[in-house]
Design brief:
Helix content: 10-25%
Strand content: 35-45%
Largest sheet: 6 strands, mixed
Number of domains: 2
Number of strands: 12
Structural class: alpha+beta
Strand order of the largest sheet: 1-2-12-9-10-11
Oligomer: single chain
């Protein structure tokens, strides 16, 4: 595999879209799987109830707490390590994820406004919980990459003009295209520019009015769309996933040599 190239199209802390070039479909799929299952996150695993006079069973509350994303600093913990959090809310009030108090300042709810339960007058919820560091291969609650997908980068080829009496027909394409026909595009664009199909309402007849077109895949180039649950940034997720692939490759190489 040649040296791969990465180009971001959209970049945010929790969501990003980027293109990776000079990689095989196998590598692209391996990276996707690694982002979903191989990068460990902290998640509540054990709950000790001190008082629960709400209308919800302990087990139901424990399930909800386990689905609250927690910030997970990379390289600060090893798999199996735990962090204790506590919660004490009395009604009439709503207990939110932001009410969880962590024993470690580096670990806290990724979002403060996730509702846990609505407490009525006289009801109280007090508990302690242990968050454990584990990977998505063990449980889905440890999957920091909540939405990870990819597809081939595509380009459009203009094959000719439409006939004099032919009307432009809707030609829907979703994703990202690499511009290779800028002289025909109804836009100010350059050769090789990456264009989101949302910019022309996902309709190629708007992008290339009056022309017949064909869509092709760019060889060994893939568009990734990645979202995290807030445990860490997209950049951290991608880097850590790539690191796990490198470690696996090294293990395989050593095993083959034996």
């Amino acid at each position: 595999m040649e040296d791969y190239e990465v180009e971001f199209i959209e970049y945010g802390d929790r969501s990003a879209r980027f293109v990776i070039r000079n990689v095989t479909p196998a590598f692209a799929n391996g990276l996707r799987r690694a982002m979903i299952t191989d990068v460990p996150t902290l998640s509540i695993d054990t709950v000790r109830m001190v008082e629960n006079s709400s209308v919800m069973f302990d087990e139901q509350l424990a399930l909800r707490l386990g689905l609250v994303p927690l910030t997970t600093p990379v390289d600060e913990f090893e798999e199996g390590d735990t962090v204790t959090l506590s919660l004490d809310v009395e009604g009439p009030n709503t207990a939110y994820s932001g009410d969880l108090i962590s024993s470690d300042s580096m670990v806290e709810p990724a979002d403060d406004n996730i509702p846990i339960i609505d407490l009525k007058d006289g009801q109280r919820l007090e508990l302690e919980a242990d968050a454990v560091l584990d990977s998505g291969t063990e449980h889905a609650k440890h999957q920091g990459g909540v939405s990870v997908g990819y597809r081939h980068l595509q380009y459009v080829e203009v094959t000719g003009e439409r006939g004099e009496f032919e009307e432009d027909e809707t030609n829907i394409l979703r994703g990202v295209i690499e511009e290779r026909e800028p002289e025909y595009a109804d836009a100010d664009t350059k050769m090789g520019e990456l264009v989101l199909t949302e910019e022309f309402d996902n309709d190629l007849s708007n992008r290339y009015p009056g022309y017949n077109v064909e869509v092709h895949d760019v060889e060994n180039a893939f568009v990734f769309h990645v979202e995290t649950d807030g445990s860490f940034s997209v950049e951290t997720l991608v880097k850590e996933a790539a690191k796990t692939l490198d470690e696996r490759a090294a293990e395989l190489e050593q095993a083959v040599q034996l």
